[in-house]
Amino acid sequence: MKTILRNATVFTRKGFERMDIAISGDRLLVPFDVSDIVQSDDVVFDFNHKYILPGFVDVHVHFREPGFSYKETIGTGSMAAAHGGFTTVFTMPNLNPPPCDYASLKQQLDIIEKDAVIKVVPFGAITENQKGRGKLSKMDEMADYVAGFSDDGVGVQADFTMEDAMVKVASLGKIISAHCEDESLNTIPYTGTTSASESVQAARDIELSAKTGCKYHICHVSAKETLDAVRKGKARGINVTCETGPHYIAFNSNTIKHEGNFRMNPPIKSPEDQKAIIEAIKDGTIDMIATDHAPHSLEEKSKGFDKSSFGVVGLETSFAVSYTELVKKNVISFERLVELMSVNPRKRFGLPGGYIENGEVADICVVDTETTWKVNPEEFLTKGRSTPFDGINLTGKVIATFVDGKLVYRNEQEI
User: Fold this and answer.
1) Structure-model confidence comparison of residues 260 and 189, the more confident one
2) What rounded mean pLDDT belongs to the chain?
3) Angle ∠(182,94,118) on CA atoms, nearest 5
4) Rounded Cα–Cα distance for residues 239 and 215 (Å)
């Protein structure tokens, strides 16, 4: 039995090509000649006017389990990811217990094996109990099972702690993915990271990456000064990459609403920062788009802009927001967007794939770029409902997601 996908425009190493493809087992057959071998039990989809893309990879999500399953679970989070076209995500260690050794990590791995509908790979914590200070976690025990190491939500405060971490991580051949926040420079606590607290710590870490040879990645860049540091570091040949989120692309401090749906850390910043983010996407300084999908309960997000918990959901709107803001507005090409959401995350974190090719694992999504829809959080598959895009019209919709050749999400209205 095969799954045959007909008449689509397919993302290959040559760019977009119109062709038929098929899935046999967990592998792609590219191209596929439908006059060749079609069996009675083959499943055929006609994806005329649709695009088949390598499944999106989000290197920064929070699935809240173990410890906070009232906010999200591996099951609900991975279904939301499939709904958004993601076939692989990396989960951050803000958990109870945080993954600081193999025993604590295994609790999460066991839930992933049982409940995930897509590929979910954890980050291990950098420091013991993910405090951003003190002893390092037991990285040796976790290295074979994690995407890398992060204390996301907390910046590593001491220079010597980060240097020790980078030496260790480099020896293990892994990567540090850092939330940059110098707590001594946060002068407006309720809004989260200031530009200085983000950029100063990022600049410090880039220098430490140069010194130690550690691969270094910066989470959720929101400030133009951070981008300046990344750009200069790359020019010097330092092994640094960075991500930004859809909300930093779409909004600035003049366009946000002062309500819980817009409270995240780092906060959305000035129009000048937004412009710098757009330019950095265009010139390649920003390597990838990541959602920082961070669900909370309704109660936690209903306390206003100043007191609600930090974090918004984003997996189910990421493609549409990015397509609407970047491709439809002619900021970048559609091919470049696929690089930001599929190709570059795989390259940076050592994952296979990135193109629709014969013999590759069938981790793919199918998108409709003609449909415009209004964001309704009640239709989300995540437990979280807090999104700054609530009620906004977006163009571009994921209509199917396949993982290891299995159809894990389909839009019943479209296919």
Assistant:
1) 260
2) 96
3) 125
4) 5
Helices (H), 237-373: 246-250, 271-283, 304-307, 318-322, 334-338, 344-349
Is there a contact between 43 and 4 (Cβ–Cβ < 8 Å)? yes
Torsion of CA 211, 212, 215, 216, to 10 degrees: -60
Catalytic residues: 292
Specify the range with the lowest mean pLDDT, choosing from 34-43, 321-330, 366-375.
Answer: 34-43
> Residues for the chain: how many in total?
415
What is the structure's pLDDT at 191? 63
Paired strand residues for 372: 395
Contact 223, 198 (CB under 8 A): yes
| CA-closest candidate to residue 104, choices 65, 76, 136, 59 | 65
Amino acid identity for residue 414 in this structure: E
| Terminal C-alpha separation, the chain | 19
Reported in sequence order, the residue ranges of 222-363 that DSSP labels E, i.e. its strands, are 240-244, 288-289
Closest listed residue to residue 314, CA positions, set 399, 384, 226, 263 = 384
pLDDT tens digits for range 268-303: 999 999 999 999 999 999 999 999 999 999 999 999
Q: Are the C-beta atoms of residues 227 and 184 closer than 8 Å to each other?
A: no
